[in-house]
Amino acid sequence: MDNYDIIDFYTSPDREHRLSEIRKCDWRAGSYLCHLIDSGSFFEVLGESSKLLLLCEGGKLLSFCALTERDQVETDLTPWVGFVYTFPEARGRRLMGLLINEAKRIAAERGFDTVYLSTDHIGLYEKYGFEFVGTARERSGEPTRIYKISTR
Length: 152
Hints:
This protein is of the alpha+beta class.
């Protein structure tokens, strides 16, 4: 995996530093993620087995995503890849694929054959192997697209 490390935020010894890096994210869902961490409600909202995966290079945070039991969509589908973000200076290098593969590996290890993703993007996640399933409504009532990918 070249010089990249994938770190589990909650087992990282330097969580405060990692959180300060996540706070630099210019995306409103990143702010919500920070709120969940700050309030101690990450696991309560997203599920006890949820993970926050950080992709770093030389200690610098480049990209992150979560593997969660629940997402913003009211459904029985599980698990979910969410809070998918790559910092602008690291975009175009397909780094998110490394995190998606790690999320798939963890999900498969837990016995899941499929991982889901909710997004309003079209054409972004397909290049990582996700397939469009259909549309749904987020808890807020907004429409969203549901994708799936095999863990095998």
